[in-house]
């Protein structure tokens, strides 16, 4: 059975294993991971198109019968090949910068399906969005609303607006990725929203048609979503009493994935909460999934360079580092690490899997029981979200290559950087 054929019924979590173990080898759809590592070198990001597309369709199918648009959160993974695959499905896109807008357009995305979020939009970025004809701006402060009104007036356009409200709901996730609390920089306190809608409704260059809410990322319980949506729906009803009709509701993203032993809700269960909260109100629903679409559709491959034993503490030094995948160092993120080729198990030992960067925080995993040798390839799972997109050139390390596996075909969707390119924009003193 092909990977694509392993899907479950529409609206349910896809039963896809994009990186299966066949015999002693890990595969990406029809390609052996160790072959990809030898062909393209390491570190290497590998994505499964079938897993990516089935995860997106799970959200789309879950809201069948409800006017909606699934808008992939570009910040999770902005590779053009990945965005292209989603655009071909009819995906919309949630962006947070002008650069992300340019990427979406370069990948063939429809600007009329783009939602522009983010707390610090510049005038230039607002003009870009207006000229491109995006679907809506998610406005996050009174000052931003006033600036957008000015920019739209100068451009002779009417800007479509949704206020992103902050419902002060605890999403029970890492504090760095919690965005719906009163202490967060994101959104407008929901208690201030009615006054700001009234102010925006009086600005001719704005069309106040939507309300948005996004409370955080890697959320594994439905209760925070349910609580936030109840407050948003109450606001919609209050605005209707003020004569302001809301026709678009952006419920955000944030649904978690399984890295280790998490049991996040399925897209169908999440969609059921959305349906129940909206209660048949005549609105178009926008979703902004990111991690839950691409997170488990990608792995990071690395070569074991050295095995070290520091007096009983073993290290596997690999050629991928915190500059390639920063989640363990930044968030304490955990991803499963496996050898691409299985051995007999007699050489199993407990390792800290670390990179070559000159930082003690440069590790990909601690206390991992592995049977590996120098020269072996290992795969770091769940690396499709916030992996390459957060990578850097720290220690003057060229960033990794990226490939997309599509059945038996493999596409190089980003070549590896060259060391000479890292200083191409710099110059010596005269």
Helix and strand arrangement:
Layout: E1 21-22, E2 25-28, E3 31-32, H1 33-40, E4 44-48, H2 49-62, E5 68-73, H3 80-89, E6 92-95, H4 98-106, E7 114-116, H5 123-132, E8 136-139, H6 142-155, E9 159-166, E10 188-189, H7 193-201, E11 206-212, H8 223-241, E12 248-250, H9 267-278, E13 284-287, H10 291-294, E14 298-309, E15 314-318, H11 327-331, E16 337-339, E17 349-354, E18 363-370, E19 377-380, E20 401-406, E21 409-414
Parallel strand pairs: 4-20, 5-6, 5-13, 6-7, 7-8, 8-9, 9-10, 9-11, 11-12, 12-13, 15-17
Antiparallel strand pairs: 1-2, 2-3, 4-14, 14-15, 14-19, 16-19, 17-18, 20-21
Helix pairs in contact: 2-3, 2-9, 5-6, 8-9
Main features:
eight-stranded parallel barrel, alpha/beta, nine-stranded mixed sheet, globular
Number of strands: 21
Determine the N-to-C terminus distance. Answer: 64 Å
For the sheet with most strands, the description reads: 9 strands, mixed
Average residue pLDDT: 92
Class from helix and strand fractions: alpha/beta
- Name the beta content range: 15-25%
Number of helices: 11
State the helical fraction: 25-40%
Spans of at least 5 consecutive residues whose pLDDT stays below 50 are 1-14, 173-181
Rg, alpha carbons:
23 Å
Kindly report the oligomeric state of this protein: single chain
Shape: globular
